[in-house]
């Protein structure tokens, strides 16, 4: 078990879950086309903003999934392990990763991006990008160009990038819509009108 997984799958991580994420909630909801997979859903904070048939929450922490089900009895939540296959959640349009990717180590993130690309045309990412952080054991703060390279390898480009001021940490919080390139873009053809 790697360090990040060990951290997140124990209740010791729970106080780290909700300190700031409400800040970008409206922006995340605005860019998320349904149905959504809320990847790293924690306690299922976002579930209440979607109809039950539009939403599935997944997380590596089984106790958090239990709590998410208790808080949102009509929504679907699934515990996933390290060998997750999201394509079984058929028809998803957006994978939401709200305060998650900066906790994912380098040796897992490529596999994760690949899995996202096979599953949905959009990814809605919200977190502090490239801002040094202290105090969180598993924080992997990557600059934007690193994310562009990781997602770009699997056909994604930035569709929208919004900055939301986080008064608590006094830094900008990024909300990014990643969208799959069209087949014309991938093959390098120019569309002219
Ligand atoms: C800071 S919390 C954010 C929770 C939720 N997205 C929110 O905004 O309220 C990070 C969550 O990501 C989950 N997580 C961390 N690494 C993960 C991984 N490799 N796969 C799936 N979930 C992961 C953790 O278990 C935790 O619930």
Give a structural overview.
The chain is an alpha/beta fold and 193 residues long. The protein has one domain: Vaccinia Virus protein VP39 (Rossmann fold, 3-Layer(aba) Sandwich), CATH 3.40.50. The chain has six helices and seven strands; from the N terminus they run H-H-E-E-H-E-E-H-E-H-E-E-H. It has helices at 3-8, 25-31, 62-71, 106-119, 144-152, 183-186; strands spanning 36-39, 55-59, 76-79, 94-98, 122-127, 156-166, 171-180. It has a seven-stranded mixed β-sheet, with helices on both faces. The radius of gyration is 16 Å and the shape is globular. The model has no long low-confidence stretch (mean pLDDT 88). The structure holds S-adenosylmethionine (SAM). S-adenosylmethionine is lined by residues 8, 16-18, 21, 40-42, 45, 59-61, 64, 98-100, 103-104, 108.
Instruction: Give me the Rg, rounded.
Output: 16 Å
The beta-strand count equals 7
Q: Give the names of the bound compounds.
A: S-adenosylmethionine
CATH class: Alpha Beta
Number of self-contained structural domains: 1
> For the record, what is the CATH homologous superfamily label?
Vaccinia Virus protein VP39
Mean pLDDT level: 88
**Percent of residues in beta strands?**
15-25%
Structural class: alpha/beta
- Principal-axis shape equals globular
Residue windows where pLDDT falls under 50 for at least 5 positions: none
The level of helicity is 25-40%
Q: Count every helix, treating DSSP H or I runs of 4 or more residues as helices.
A: 6
Query: Between the first and last Cα atoms, what is the distance in angstroms?
Result: 53 Å
The description of the largest β-sheet is: 7 strands, mixed
């Amino acid at each position: 078990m790697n360090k990040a997984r060990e951290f997140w799958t124990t209740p010791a991580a729970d106080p780290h879950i909700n300190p700031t994420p409400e800040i970008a909630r409206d922006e995340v909801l605005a860019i998320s086309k349904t149905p959504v997979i809320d990847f790293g859903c924690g306690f299922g904070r976002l579930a209440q903003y979607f109809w039950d048939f539009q939403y599935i929450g997944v997380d590596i922490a089984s106790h958090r999934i239990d709590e998410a089900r208790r808080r949102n009895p009509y929504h679907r939540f699934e515990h996933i392990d390290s060998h997750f296959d999201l394509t079984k959640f058929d028809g998803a349009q957006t994978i939401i990763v709200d305060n998650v990717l900066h906790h994912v180590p380098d040796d897992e993130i490529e596999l994760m991006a690949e899995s996202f690309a096979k599953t949905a045309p959009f990814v809605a990412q919200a977190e502090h990008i490239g801002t040094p952080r202290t105090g969180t054991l598993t924080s992997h703060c990557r600059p934007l160009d690193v994310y562009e390279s990781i997602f770009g390898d699997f056909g994604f480009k930035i569709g929208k990038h919004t900055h939301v001021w986080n008064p608590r940490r006094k830094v900008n919080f990024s909300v990014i819509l990643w969208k799959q390139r069209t087949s014309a873009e991938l093959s390098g053809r120019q569309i002219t009108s």
